[in-house]
Amino acid sequence: MAKIKHNNFLDTVDEVITNATKAGVLHLHAEDSELNGRKIIVNGINSCHFGTTGYLGLEQDERLKKAAIEAITKYGTQFPLSKTYISHPLYARLEKKLEKIYNNLILITKNSTLGHIAVIPTAVEDNDAVILDHQVHWSVQNAAQLLKIRGIPVNLIRHNSLEMLEDRIKKLSGKVRRIWYMADGVYSMYGDYAPVTDLISLSQKYPQLHLYFDDVHGMSWKGPNGSGYIMSMLEELPENILLFGTLSKTFGASGAVLVCPDKKLYRKIKNFGGPLTFSAQLEPSAVAAAIASANIHLSQEIYDLQDTLHERINYFNFLLQKTSLPLIENNDSPVFYIGTGLPATGYAFVKKLMNEGFFVNLGLFPAVPVKNTGVRITVSRHNELEDIKGLVEAMEYHFPKALEETDNSLGRIGKAFNIEINSRNEKAKSTEELSLTYTETIQEIEESSWNQLMGHHTILNWKGLEFLENSFRNHESKEHRWSFHYFIITDQQGNPILATFMTCALWKNDMLSPSSVSKTIEEKRKSNPYELTSRVLSMGSLFTEGVHWYLDEDHPLATQAIKKLLLEIEILSARLDSKMTVLRDFKKEPWLSDLFHQEGFIPIEMPDSCIIDDLSWNNEKEFEERLSSRSRKHFRKEVLPFEDKFEISIHTAPTPEQIQHYYQLYKNVKANNLGLNTFTYPESLFKNMVSHTSWEFIELKLKDLNKVVGIMFCYKNDRGIYVPSLVGMDYDYAREFQVYRQLLYQTIKRARDLNMKRIDLGFSASFEKRKFGAKIIGKHAFIQSDDNYLLEQLDMMRNE
């Protein structure tokens, strides 16, 4: 079987960021002639700056500026030489001051990203293992990827999940020497903390456990001498911890600092730490500014600055508590996150605040799950109390308006973030213009009404869905036990605007991953068949392909109908406790992509779909003439010469013994094709085909061996659609006799003999199907998940 193409995680991110840029909330430019930290000009508006990560405002301190200027005058703009050979005159002074701040050995790096690339591959040895918190900063995750080349296991766990961490430690403890857990001290989106005390206890329980903290967002505003959040939680740094701080952000200069209490490891990193050896060192101006900042950190002044910032943080918290604004994490960090849930609400809210003169950041995918979009606000010492009060008043005024404009609610936001929000006084928006019919069985929908809307698609007519319900509704195996959900939305006159059906079923998380990823996971499934599986609420089903909804795009209420459907799906997903919602299979239409994204879904590329809609030929010669010149050569060489090798039969009521053999042939193909990795269908499904009048079986039997080596399972839609849903082959003969290609050809001939209008050939093997004149249709799906963990976990595995 031909390979199917797979979506790249970066393609999804690119599309999301592009949409946000078009909405005017990302990739902006400051327009000031000079900066003071408190104000910033964006889109011509002089705004209060609530987006900085310089929480203490030291980047505007005159002492740091003066030091940087003097250093340039004395030493030049840079000292272009590796620090391994010689460092410029200011480096030693800075190193001594940083050692006093941390009371430990330190190494200065160009920035934290290069620092992680230098330290992680050096500190982590070949017989170690790494566990990443899935919200640890990208720079840490990226550096950890380098370890996979050396065969070092790199695992991902859910955010701050100590239970999951301990479970991974137990599984790894007998296989590796050291286990490194890597996390942030303060997380940059929600402003929440690593559970440092619990992690220290866990490392005492499991001496193999070493901790690696990126504390760049905890630096300066917290801890003794501004040494950061992690140091504020510890009396001293144990030897099993590596700590990264920053000389940029709150420190006010540039660069990063590694704190390493293990002298042997310190020497090793210093002597050969990748970018430490081969990259240029910090510019004299940056080091001089850092020295000026370090002097402040080593004085009583740092505590005065911290107190001033905490006064502003406490004031902001005090004002927020009086509002109904959904603050996601309530703590004393300078990072605040107001949840909006839907990206559309986030866009609207940010733009309203920016128009009002308050610059804030939007938190969106992939930094947060797409349905956990929100506004990220950072408080700094630059912000005056009146600025903070003005921001809260603007948010109180504009937040309800953003909700109303985007058909959102506090209740939905609470559910998206799994937090309690008082939304009792919130008025539900009237949807009297639309009526919804919902049922959990096709039996409660009139056959002719459903077929008028959905009957001309593959197996999606009334009889086809009845067949699927009978095959999967109450199956004994949980992977084959599906629930069915039908939606029809009409206007006040009863005119249908939208119709669809969905199923909730157990999916393999790697269904659309590269086969190499699935192959690795399938090894684990030999001992646990449900490894890396999740309940998914999906438009259509794992058995169906094609257009899974009816939409009257010209109806004036079409957009409102889509939004109503998505709200109903959201409620249903919560009731069914599904971990992901999937809307599929759509052609790429910009207006629909934008709408789905704004409603909290991200796009992924699906395998191509294939159809043949020209069956007007009368004989083999006419069929051949419709093919391209290259395909004609293929047809004459790989198809026609083998047709006489087979006895071709059409069966509508095969015997139990035949079905058993057909099922084995199907399983051969299933085991050989991990490109679209689903659970193997049960034998009962194939037995049900026999008793259903719409199914037939195209059988290929080798004449010389009297052996059935190929089977196509075909559904006859009464609207003139022929659907070869599944294929089975004996691989001992598949290549020699071109079995798959012959099955495709015989399927096309059979559809022509039945006077069918179209053949829906489904996913995969599009290269082969194109040779028979199939049209290739690009398809997209849109997904919404509880968090990014599953997506990031699979993306990490595809890079192994």
UniProtKB/TrEMBL annotation:
<protein>
    <submittedName>
        <fullName>2-amino-3-ketobutyrate coenzyme A ligase</fullName>
        <ecNumber>2.3.1.29</ecNumber>
    </submittedName>
</protein>
<keyword id="KW-0808">Transferase</keyword>
<feature type="domain" description="Aminotransferase class I/classII large">
    <location>
        <begin position="55"/>
        <end position="384"/>
    </location>
</feature>
<dbReference type="InterPro" id="IPR015422">
    <property type="entry name" value="PyrdxlP-dep_Trfase_small"/>
</dbReference>
<feature type="domain" description="BioF2-like acetyltransferase">
    <location>
        <begin position="630"/>
        <end position="769"/>
    </location>
</feature>
<dbReference type="InterPro" id="IPR050087">
    <property type="entry name" value="AON_synthase_class-II"/>
</dbReference>
<dbReference type="GO" id="GO:0016874">
    <property type="term" value="F:ligase activity"/>
</dbReference>
<dbReference type="Pfam" id="PF13480">
    <property type="entry name" value="Acetyltransf_6"/>
</dbReference>
<dbReference type="GO" id="GO:0030170">
    <property type="term" value="F:pyridoxal phosphate binding"/>
</dbReference>
<dbReference type="InterPro" id="IPR004839">
    <property type="entry name" value="Aminotransferase_I/II_large"/>
</dbReference>
<dbReference type="InterPro" id="IPR015421">
    <property type="entry name" value="PyrdxlP-dep_Trfase_major"/>
</dbReference>
<dbReference type="Pfam" id="PF00155">
    <property type="entry name" value="Aminotran_1_2"/>
</dbReference>
<keyword id="KW-0012">Acyltransferase</keyword>
<dbReference type="InterPro" id="IPR015424">
    <property type="entry name" value="PyrdxlP-dep_Trfase"/>
</dbReference>
<dbReference type="InterPro" id="IPR016181">
    <property type="entry name" value="Acyl_CoA_acyltransferase"/>
</dbReference>
<keyword id="KW-0436">Ligase</keyword>
<dbReference type="GO" id="GO:0008890">
    <property type="term" value="F:glycine C-acetyltransferase activity"/>
</dbReference>
<dbReference type="InterPro" id="IPR038740">
    <property type="entry name" value="BioF2-like_GNAT_dom"/>
</dbReference>
